[in-house]
Amino acid sequence: MTVPGWRSRTDLLVAAVILAFCAIVYGLTYRFDAVPVALMDGLGAELFPRLVLGVVALMAVLIALGIGITPMAAPPPVHPMVWMTGGAMLAFMVAVEVIGLWPTAFLFVVGLGWLWGERSLLRLALSAAGLCAVLYLLFVRLLGGTFPKGLLTSLWS
Amino acid sequence: MDAFFAGMGVLLDPYMLFLVFAGTVLGIVVGALPGISGSTTTALLLPLTIAMTPAAAIAFLGSLYCAANFGGSITAILINTPGDPSASATAFDGYPMAARGEAGKALGISAVASAIGGIFSVFVLIVAAPLLARMAYQFGPPEYFALAVFGLSMVAAIGGDSPVKNLLAAALGVLLATVGLDLTTGVERFTFGAYALSDGIEFIPVLVGLFAISELLEQAAQHGAVQSYIKLKKVELPTLADFRKCAKAISLSSVIGTFIGVLPALGATTAALICYNETRRWSKHKEEFGRGAIEGVAGPEAANNAAVGGAMVPTLALGIPGSTTSAIILAGLIIQGIRPGPHLFTEQPTLLYVVFGSMFAANLLYLVMGLGMAKLFARIALIPATYLWPAVFVLSVVGSYAPNQSMFDVWVMLAAGVVGFLFRRYGFSPAPLIMGLVLGKLVEETLKQSLLIFDRNWLMFLTRPVVVVLFAITAAGLAAPALLRLWRFWRASAA
């Protein structure tokens, strides 16, 4: 992961992104509500975040200058499976709103397991059912939690 | 003494004993699963503790913390893949031992050394934590501010590939802690009008996302990797000759491991790596190291478990986490409405004896289980990733949603997971961010209180001796790597 030399394009890119982030967040501190006059003697709400942003920016500058870091090569491209797994997570979030948490959880365990290479759907289905049953007993029956039922389930009932 | 008996009374309740047992079993099992570290396990199971009493929660988490470090050694020895980062040094000699047919012996010495290191550190915790708390009892906001800054500066040594990146991550954690209502002025900060952010960012979704979801994405990138497993016949108790050979390694590592654990932010992984080197340095059989030296297993295992008790010393006495996992436990206590610190020792001594007792019991329990059931734990550790990680995701969603019954928290968890993944990809460690998030409020509150006391005169900090000492240690710690590099450069130029 490391390259010879005292700075790398990856570190410069990382530093640039962090500095841009600092600039945006610093700008946001100007949008805080005005402090009531009675509290003006104290430390304003914006001072501490600005101090911390100063530290973050200073560290980003050090990274850009290659001080106190091991220079870093560009990481390899993100594996396609990471994108697919991320997509499955987003699909999970959408599906929860439609069919509810437990059916979505069941489908997710089966679907992601299949995506990652397991070809026995029966075993995946059994493990998904077992997991959902354990979590349902623990979080709903024992701890008394309620979980999203989803639009379709709500319409059905 | 009343508090001791009250604490033991609480701990001997069957429900509490069950929690200690469950925490130990879960700690070993999940600690043994490659990719799921003790920190991830603690973060994943933190939502369960919300419904518990503070004593039950800390007994459960304490047992989990103790056992996870030992669990990590099982896979380090059998498949050369540490279940927990703290067991990485164990693999150096544990796997070669297993490869030449001594897996049972390696697991046996690992269990015994872990228990000795762990129990030693619990005794240190019992003695040192009250002493430290007594010292800190006179601390005011300026001293706490300096202490928190010192704790944050120590994260420079945690992980990732540079101190600067670690400090940056810690500062981002502190920044994240400023989200929500400013308690002094009542001004909302970075909430973007979202009601869910008024009380600040919830710990649980961030912890779960940073550890579990980012690791899930990492595992997705490695999917298809094949692990070779060395079959275990049975776990063997170390012989007297083994003990004689390892006695120095275990005792030295227990002491060093506990000391490293006490230092804020430095945890079991650092302790194990340092003690592996120290064990080799003091060994009469240096040539055996890396080829299956039994001392090479005993040393790091004693050290990483000793660091657990050590890490709880500043966590309980000062409210400054001694490691990443203890930062998560600290977050769990804050959620329960308890802020550890010197006052805990006078206000809730019973709770402390529950902590001491449960950690002591967990160390004995995993010794018995490690010797008797390692074969079973080893099999569980080989659950295929295709079953394990989808289940981790579902548990993460349920755990993040449950405390506030809020899908917003699940989105926060996912966002934290992506941030954690990007962090790892670009050489940052997520652990300093957690430290910053947990300590952020303390840093801001104490800074504000100090400046009110000092009438906004920053130089007044220098009138407090403890503050000056802590700032000096912080500055020395931060400057040390640069000075060391300069010194090496100067010596190389001179030669």
Which tags fit this structure?
heterodimer, A: 157 residues, mainly alpha, 2 domains, 66% helix, disordered N terminus, B: 495 residues, 19 helices, globular
Quick overview:
Chain A has about 160 residues and is mainly alpha-helical.
Give a verbal description of the structure:
The complex is a heterodimer of chains A (157) and B (495). With 157 residues, chain A is an all-alpha fold. Chain A has 2 domains: 57 residues; 77 residues, no CATH class. Helices cover 66% and strands 0% of the residues of chain A. In chain A, α1 runs antiparallel to α2 and α4 packs antiparallel against α5. The relative contact order of chain A is 0.11. The N terminus of chain A is likely disordered. Chain B is an all-alpha fold. Chain B has one domain. Chain B is 73% helix and 1% strand. Chain B is built from 19 helices and 2 strands. In chain B, strands 1-2 form a two-stranded antiparallel ribbon. Chain B starts with a helix and ends with a helix. The model of chain B has no long low-confidence stretch (mean pLDDT 87). Classes of the chains: A mainly alpha (157), B mainly alpha (495). At the A-B interface, α1, α2, α3, α4 and α5 of A face α8, β2, α9, α16 and α17 of B.
Largest interface, counted by CB within 8 Å of the partner chain's CB: A-B, 71 and 62 residues
Order of helices and strands of chain A: HHHHHH
Termini separation of chain A (Å)? 55 Å
Shape of chain B: globular
